[in-house]
Amino acid sequence: MLVALIVILLLVAVVLILAAMRPDQFRIERSATIRAPAERIFPFIDDFHRWQAWSPYEKKDPAMQRTFDGPPSGVGAIYAWNGNKDIGSGRMEIGQSTPSSRVFLKLEFFTPFKASNTAEFVLTPEGDATRVSWPCKGARRS
Question: I need a labelling partner for 130 at 20 to 30 A (CA). Which of 2, 40, 44, 76 fits?
Answer without folding.
Answer: 76
